[in-house]
Sequence to fold (160 residues):
Amino acid sequence: MRTAIYPGSFDPITYGHVDIIKRSLAIADRVIVGVLGNSAKRPLFTASERVEQVRLAVRGLRRVEVESFDGLLVDFLRRKHGSMVIRGLRAVSDFEYEFQLALTNRRLERTAETVFLMPAERYTFLSSSVVKEIARLRGSVRGLVPPHVASALKGKHRLA
Fold:
């Protein structure tokens, strides 16, 4: 069984992430979305909120699991018997950083293979940071994130 790990902070999950998850199902028997718990990015949502948001976003997709993890990705990959790491590439500017991570992971775990997937063209500009900035400025994130995420973003910014 080919198990793919799709790691990230998913703060919040976007339709671009969902697109990558769906594409991953074409090359893996099982996809585990690994939500990084102790992100150095100072996430807007807690790890448990992000896990729940991802679960709701992928509900109905068979062969997809969601869980949080802390520590090294290669340790999570080993624990889950993963055979590949999925990473999304939106633009050439993403490649250098992602390539460095892939080589580092391979150095730490020689069997760690990274597969780069491009989202649908309409999502190539989309990032969680862009979504959070739009929401912070009270703009519409409709069409960028699932409705439950849009509501959660409104709730966070209403409290601010």
